[in-house]
Amino acid sequence: MADVNRGKRPLSPHLTIYRPQLTSMTSIFTRITGNAMLLAALMIVWWLLAAATGPGYYDLARTVITSWFGSLIMILSLWALWYHFCAGLRHLYWDTGRGFEIKQAERLGIMVIAGSFILTVLTLILI
Hints:
The protein is mainly α and about 130 residues long.
């Protein structure tokens, strides 16, 4: 039987009243960074295949990867790697049954974001 009241029910949560929280945004961003790292992985595989193919093709791949766009992708992927690592540590902490209080969860989210930026900068300095 058809639901005759379908048009009168509100959406849940309604987009005009929903306020994203830090914990939900960091969780979503963990998934985004995990998928985004695939782009850098594909570029590295392409670079390795080009190195195995020959000097002409390798020069093309090296030019693309060392261009400003390639460097940007690699630096953002480095940040995504550190972000994903820090978020994984947070989840391991949560697996112990701790850190679920709102203030603690928000503090952990801030630590994940700050830690990923600090580790990225340190990595870039050391490389």
